[in-house]
Amino acid sequence: MGDLFGVLAKRVAANARRAVEVYSRELPEWRAMGERDVAAPLEFAVLLRRRSVELASHDQPFTGDDLAVIASVGRARGRAGVSLGSCRRVLGLHTTLMMQEMHEAAADAELDDLLRMLNWLGEQGFAAQDSYIRGFLDGQRHLLPDAERVQRLAAALLTGDPAAAELASSLDMPAASQYTVTVVRIADPDFRPAPATRAKILDALLAMDRVPMRWTDRLEFAVLLPATDRDRERALALAAAFAESVGRPCAVGADTASVSDLRGAVALARQISRTAPGERVPRRIRTVADMFVELGAARLPEIDLWLREVAHRLSRGPDLVATLDAYYRHDKNRGAAASDLYVHPRTLDYRLRRARELTGIDPTTTHGVRTLSATVTRILADG
Q1: 383 pLDDT more than 70
Q2: The RsbT co-antagonist protein RsbRD N-terminal domain covers which part of the protein (predicted)?
Q3: CATH fold group of domain 300-381
Q4: CATH code 1.10.10.2840 region(s) in the chain
């Protein structure tokens, strides 16, 4: 039987060259880096493989000096402007290639050697990747503005990137097990903020509350707040400041989920924000509990058409949409709703009667609340 470690040691140079070729082929950023300095990536690929074989053959872990070298290479990549996505991708490729190299060398190897190598990689691979990522993020800190790093943290959390925890640590932001994801949607499809404007708004919001946040597109902004008793209050303050900054009505939706399910949370918060009405100054953070009727109706064209017909009937009355909106927002309190509308309670009563006459639905009943509140929300969401 052959010696697995001896075979791997003989193939270090060839395997390293192949690895660099794969990185360059699969990752444009690595290809550009290789064009500037061909020797450095190859030298590191050789060193990493040589030390892995040496240490695994004696069941020894990476030394502090080994991990420091790995971190220094990651730091150099971060300072070179390589993206976090490419960094994660190259680590995945490295793992795949190492497994392939072992498979190729194991044809005549002792089973014990193969198991020892697999066990060593399973234990030491995490330590090496952790050092590399830590160095990479430290290198980015010297290259990227703080606001851009915060946006990258938000993106990492929303996509479930394992590097999120380390990135949060590098930004001195406490990691949380649960987050409330708030999506603020600008209710003006023609609004096109310049990059400088977007950066200025982000900086201002970070000065208010230093939490993960990012522009997800030109009309949408996402904020991630650790789930606490005050998360909705903080989210509403940020949403109001955002709306004031853009000078456009904004709709706000939110959902709370564990850190492992934030991808689903942002999708639901986005749907809520697209169904909720826009407001010049957002007055509430809407969740699925507030919008489940409207969300369901939006997915059924027949129900949506019916709500539009009810809305058309309401449009024939005097300020009925605004009246019903205030009436339901104040939980059917006539005095509070009338005060909000700056009208006499009798005027409010007249408008409620007129809504019943036009739609055949009594706004004060349970049926009326379910139907007309959904209709009003639909109208306001359409602007």
Answers
A1: no
A2: 15-134
A3: Arc Repressor Mutant, subunit A (1.10.10)
A4: 300-381
CA neighbor of 8 nearest in space, from 93, 102, 96:
102
Residues 6+ apart with CB under 8 A from 328: 369, 372, 373, 376
Instruction: Tell me the CA end-to-end span of the chain in Å, nearest whole number.
Output: 76
Is 108 in a helix, a strand, or coil?
coil
- Using left for φ > 0, alpha for ψ between -120 and 50, and beta otherwise, residue 250 falls in beta
d(C-alpha 165, C-alpha 73), whole Å: 20
Gap between the Cα atoms of 147 and 213, Å rounded: 9
Where exactly does CATH 1.10.490 map onto the chain? 4-141
Q: Where, residue-wise, is CATH 3.30.70.1230 in the chain?
A: 176-290
Residue 221 in this model has a pLDDT that exceeds 50: yes
Instruction: Give tens-digit pLDDT for 186-196.
Output: 999 899 999 99
Long-range contacts of 63-70 (CB under 8 A, 24+ apart): 67/127, 67/128, 67/131, 68/131, 70/128, 70/131, 70/132, 70/135
* Tens of pLDDT, residues 300-359: 777 778 878 888 888 888 889 889 989 988 899 999 999 999 999 999 999 999 999 999
Q: How many Cα atoms are found within 13 Å in the side-chain-facing hemisphere of 253?
A: 25
Residue 260 per-residue DSSP state? G
Residue-level pLDDT at 137:
86
- Domain 176-290 fold: Alpha-Beta Plaits (3.30.70)
Residue 37 phi, psi dihedral angles, 5° rounding: -150, 95
Q: What is the distance between the alpha carbons of residues 214 and 180, in angstroms, rounded to a whole number?
A: 14
| CATH 1.10.490 applies to domain 4-141 | yes
According to DSSP H, which parts of the chain are helical? Answer: 4-10, 12-26, 28-36, 39-57, 64-79, 84-105, 111-141, 146-159, 164-170, 195-208, 231-246, 262-275, 288-298, 301-314, 320-329, 334-341, 345-359, 366-381
Average pLDDT of the chain to the nearest whole number: 88
